[in-house]
Design brief:
Blueprint lengths: L3 H20 L5 H4 L4 H10 L6 H8 L4 H13 L9 H7 L1
Length: 94
């Protein structure tokens, strides 16, 4: 069973990783790999404009329905306009 110190260290490390992503200008799919669901949700919700095509595609295909739903909602409001004509690629990915 994890100790309070183990739990505290886990959340401290996770928070540091999230803060690192929050400060980045661009977020890629590889940045999302080790994140817990709640942090992926926040990225889909709040940091969508900073997500590269690979990150957006990863969020739309996420294993958790809440992350998927948020990513799809953001796609409807802010399509992949930051990337050179990828709308046809994105639609085929769905």
């Amino acid at each position: 069973m994890p100790t309070d110190q183990d739990i505290n260290e886990h959340f401290t490390n996770a928070s540091q990783e999230f803060l690192r992503l929050f400060r980045k200008k661009s977020i890629s799919a590889s940045d999302l790999e080790a994140l817990p669901m709640i942090e992926r949700f926040v990225i889909a919700s709040e940091l969508w404009p900073r997500c590269e095509y690979s990150a957006r595609r990863s969020l739309v295909r996420d294993s958790h329905p809440a992350v998927q739903a948020e990513a799809l909602a953001k796609t409807a409001r802010a399509p992949f306009r930051h990337h050179k004509d990828t709308s046809h690629e994105y639609k085929s990915a769905l």
